[in-house]
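Colleagues,

For the teaching module next term, I've prepared a clean inverse folding example: a structure given as tokens, and then the sequence designed for it. I'd like students to try predicting residues themselves before seeing the answer, so please don't circulate the second half yet.
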């Protein structure tokens, strides 16, 4: 018997992304109202918007997710710890952290594991869960992604995540592009992560069809800016 997917199931897969560098307080308030309207899983916000988002959503069932080391992962471990402490203090129950991509690429796995371990420990101590962003667009082979999955298995993080949505690569022509959450990477991450670790797809998830496709691959959460479009489609199609 095929699974009966409800509109609420789709809503609770969505982290409504409010991360664009240009977004102001006015934009945050508008986007939080969208999140409340559709009763999504979380709003995913910039660190300085965490407190305001927590206040806006206080009477709702929408949680607050904040990003740290975003979008390039270049902060020191100590700075990422302080960011995690601050955003959890201001009400974030979920934290999305970008790994130190340079350290991953040079194969400094001891550093990478320490960073993930330290941030995960801080999140758990402050009643939050950690999602580890690999930024797969910057990783030239599956070997790096598999090693990150193995580290996350040992640390026992809550989620691994494909991308920030801002990991742009330069073409030979000088223009920029990104692949985001590819089917190949989602299958790979689900295969190499333990069953206890959930998968978040981010980058290019814009329609209900996109969500249903990645859901079949084992994804339980997506980052999306097109929440209104997705949820209107879900209401019309799923009833």
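(Answer key — instructors only)
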């Amino acid at each position: 018997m095929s699974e009966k997917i409800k509109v609420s199931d789709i809503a609770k897969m969505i982290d409504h992304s409010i991360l664009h560098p240009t977004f102001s307080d006015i934009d945050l308030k508008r986007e939080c109202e969208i999140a409340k309207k559709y009763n999504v899983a979380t709003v995913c916000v910039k660190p300085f918007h965490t407190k305001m988002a927590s206040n806006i959503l206080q009477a709702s069932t929408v949680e607050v997710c904040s990003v740290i080391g975003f979008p390039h992962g270049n902060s020191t471990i100590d700075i990422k710890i302080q960011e995690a402490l601050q955003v959890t203090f201001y009400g974030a129950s979920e934290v999305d952290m970008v790994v130190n991509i340079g350290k991953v690429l040079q194969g400094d796995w001891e550093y990478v594991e320490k960073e993930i371990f330290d941030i995960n420990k801080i999140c758990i101590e402050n009643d939050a869960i950690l999602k580890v962003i690999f930024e797969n667009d910057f990783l030239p082979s599956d070997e790096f992604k598999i090693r990150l999955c193995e580290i996350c298995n040992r640390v026992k993080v809550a989620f691994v995540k494909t991308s920030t949505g801002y990991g742009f690569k330069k073409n030979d022509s000088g223009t920029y592009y990104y692949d985001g959450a590819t089917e190949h990477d989602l299958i790979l991450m689900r295969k190499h992560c333990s069953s206890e670790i959930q998968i978040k797809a981010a980058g290019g998830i814009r329609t209900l069809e996109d969500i249903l496709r990645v859901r079949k691959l084992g994804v339980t959460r997506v980052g999306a800016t097109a929440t209104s479009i997705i949820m209107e489609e879900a209401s019309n199609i799923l009833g």
